[in-house]
Amino acid sequence: MNLSHPWAPIRSPLDMEVVRVLRRTTRALTGREVARLVSVGSQPAVNAALRRLTDEGLVRADEAGNAYLHTLNREHLAAPAVDLLADIRSELERRVRAEIAGWKIAPVHVSIFGSAARGDGDTRSDIDLFVVRPTRVPDDDSRWRAQLDTLSDRVHAWTGNHAGLSEVSAATLPRLRRERPPVVEALRREAITLAGPTPAELFATKR
Known about the structure:
About 45% of the residues lie in helices and about 20% in strands. It is an alpha+beta fold. The chain has a 4-stranded mixed β-sheet with strand order 6-5-4-7, sandwiched between helices. Helix 5 (about 90-100) packs antiparallel against helix 7. The longest helix has 18 residues, at about 140-160.
């Protein structure tokens, strides 16, 4: 570890993907196994990331014949900070759930979808939220609108990204079930449910 640059262990998105793989197990993994489990990156790129992380001391590499077996060094000084970064999307989900739990008017459903759910967004991407308003609550209800505005402000404060709110009334759900616009299929495929039924349940064809 370079103590004059303590932020240096994680230098690229691939480094973080490698760390995420190693965090999920206590079993030592070969470079080939790590490459198979990461969501992006070629075998040579993963090997290079493993070498960088080993040089920083965040990964242990033990020789085993013609291969190296890799484990995360959980005693490393940077390990708690890396854990926090690796779990940052889960922390966003936790905070949004906690915010929604305090609403005076409970939503029918809230979920994260789009790039934030897929994990492929960047600093210019919105944090897309799908919100279903109770039928009895009019669109211009001041208490409801205040809740949404506060949530948008907090998402921006927590992430630096703007919240992209897609809001519908529960009264429109039957039409959405019939018409199946692209957003419905996207929600069914990738959404992370934060409140209420899952999109699969929400848009299930009624019999």
